[in-house]
Design brief:
30S ribosomal protein S1, 5-stranded antiparallel sheet, 558 residues, alpha+beta, 9 helices, elongated
């Protein structure tokens, strides 16, 4: 029986424990019964007491406000430690309480109060009344913050971006709240602005492409192209930070709240007078403002710029970068070639202000004029020679020499040699000048054979004896008489019977101006003489031999 009573007693005891003892890991109510050595001793009921550091009752940077008799909520971590005390935490109770509150605020998208109290990698820690949250550096302010010192410890609102209770993670933003209030402020300012309105603003920031102007709580962008009618390379040429400027509202984007501003719109447009001021073909002074691969921009007056295309820059420098012809800020004379008012474009010419050098050359160097120049280039079809006016003339292979083939003659010329030549043709349209070196001193062949016709008898001099015939010279022109043309008589067709220096009468059988050769023959002269004698003194049919006839003829002559 006693055993049964014992078992019943244990069961009852166990039941009372389960009933009376609160669950570990939950928040319980307790009463402060004493404060000693920086700790509060708290009775949590169920004959359990625990200790909590006073600092757990304080907000960051503040003193703890707690007194004996105060009722507090604490977190029961464990019912008994080695000293037989309950292990309790006020901080954890606050955290649990805070998490419940924060989860509700997060669900309702409400703001939460908190204070930044520490700095960690990539941002800051924020106390949200018991729960610690992370504030990323990018979420502190609308613009990057260099010094967050003044924000430390201040009670202020935050927006919860992310929560994960299981991992204990909370991410908050201060920036989202600032943006919201800024958006309200912007909406109000923008509501008072209209497109076309002139307003005063303060230059806040200057970039490569323009400036941001504060119009009283809202920024507008003043693009570099809207600052002045003239070309502005960098906004800092015109504006300084902090300066007050008058601007016109060009465009307001209602959705993005972006405002575009302009300064030049408040000044007169110089393009209204361009057509009257710059008639076609008129020449004006201008200043080079910008150089590109395709040409140079020249400012005729502030706000009016024209383009000198690379093809209109120089008569002679064809494939050269514009930067080799003009330099930025240089003053130049330009001619107006075309005006397009709609596109606000002026086409200018630089070369048109100087005379075409080919025209000048054609006037000063008619055909037949002798010129001197340096060999600039040697190509497979001839020589290029530098001429006055920075232009080139070309000597074709066929115009190098009367006697040699062009390919051989060109071998004796080198770059930078100074040579003489004769102008043979100038084509101004095609910008071509043809020169001839072989025509210097006239055409010797034409001069030598001027009075000579086919069938003429001429006297020449033997200059060389060869196996195949003899070389002779007539008026300085070389010619060759083949073995078969040396005599009518085959036995006499021997080159060795002649000597260098012999004078011979020969008949001209051919004049070839192309190859510049005379065809000469002794045999043809003999045949012609025989025909003549026969015609004069009777037919060979009468029985008299040629020797007799010639003999008689010679006697008669004597």
């Amino acid at each position: 029986m006693a055993d049964t009573t014992m078992e019943e007693f244990e069961a009852l005891l166990q039941e009372s424990f389960e009933m009376d003892t609160p669950n570990e890991g939950s928040v319980v109510k307790g009463k402060v019964i004493a404060i000693e050595a920086g700790q509060a001793i708290i009775d949590v009921g169920y004959k359990m007491e625990g200790r909590v550091d006073l600092k757990e009752f304080a907000n960051p940077g503040e003193a703890a406000e707690i007194a004996v008799g105060d009722e507090v909520e604490v977190f029961l971590r464990s019912a008994e430690n080695a000293r037989g005390e309950a292990v309790i935490s006020r901080e954890m109770a606050r955290r649990e309480e805070a998490w419940d509150r924060l989860e509700k605020a997060y669900a309702d998208e409400e703001r939460v109060e908190g204070a930044i109290f520490g700095r960690v990698k990539g941002g800051f820690t924020v106390d949200l009344g018991g729960a610690v949250a992370f504030l990323p550096g990018s979420q502190v302010d609308v613009r990057p913050v260099r010094d967050a010192g003044p924000l430390m410890g201040l009670k202020q609102p935050f927006q919860v971006l992310k929560m994960d209770r299981r991992r204990g993670n909370i991410v908050v933003s201060r920036r989202a709240i600032l943006e919201e209030s800024r958006a309200e402020q912007r909406a109000e300012v923008i509501g008072n602005l209209t497109e076309g309105q002139a307003v005063d603003g303060v230059v806040k920031n200057i970039t490569e492409y323009g400036a941001f102007v504060d119009l009283g709580g809202v920024d507008g962008l003043l693009h570099v192209t809207d600052m002045a009618w003239r070309r502005v390379n960098h906004p800092s040429e015109i504006l300084t930070i902090g300066e007050t400027v008058k601007v016109q509202v060009i465009k307001i984007n209602k959705e993005t709240h972006r405002i575009s501003l302009g300064m030049k719109q408040l000044q007169d447009d110089p393009w209204d007078l361009v057509a009257a001021k710059y008639p076609l073909s008129s020449v004006h002074k201008g200043r080079v403002t910008n150089i590109t691969d395709y040409g140079a921009f020249v400012e005729l007056e502030p706000g009016v710029e024209g383009l000198v295309h690379v093809s209109e820059m120089s008569w002679t420098k064809k494939n050269v970068h514009p930067g080799k012809i003009v330099s930025t800020s240089q003053e130049v004379d330009v001619m107006v070639l075309e005006i397009d008012g709609a596109k606000r474009r002026v086409s200018l010419g630089l070369k048109q202000t100087q005379r075409n050098p080919w025209e000048v050359f054609a006037e000063t160097h008619p055909e037949g004029t002798e010129v001197e120049g340096e060999v600039k280039n040697i190509t497979e079809f001839g020589l290029f020679i530098g001429l006055p006016g920075e232009i080139d003339g070309m000597v074709h292979l066929s115009d190098l020499s009367w006697d040699e083939r062009g390919e051989e003659a060109i071998q004796s010329y080198h770059k930078n040699d100074v040579v003489q030549a004769v102008v043979s043709e100038v084509d101004v349209e095609k910008e071509r000048i043809s020169l001839s070196i072989k025509a210097l001193g006239g055409d010797k062949f034409a001069d030598a054979v001027g009075g000579v016709k086919r069938g003429s008898i001429v006297t020449c001099e033997v200059t060389a004896i060869e196996d195949g015939g003899i070389e002779v010279a007539y008026e300085g022109m070389k010619s060759f008489i083949r073995r078969s043309d040396l005599s009518r008589d085959r036995a006499e067709q021997r080159p060795e019977r002649f000597n260098v220096g012999d004078k011979l009468d020969v008949r001209v059988t051919n004049i070839d101006s192309k190859t510049r050769r005379l065809g000469l023959s002794i045999k043809a002269r003999e045949i012609a003489e025989e025909k003549e004698a026969v015609a004069q003194y009777g037919s060979s049919d009468s029985g008299a031999s040629l020797g007799d006839i010639l003999g008689a003829a010679l006697n008669t002559d004597e």
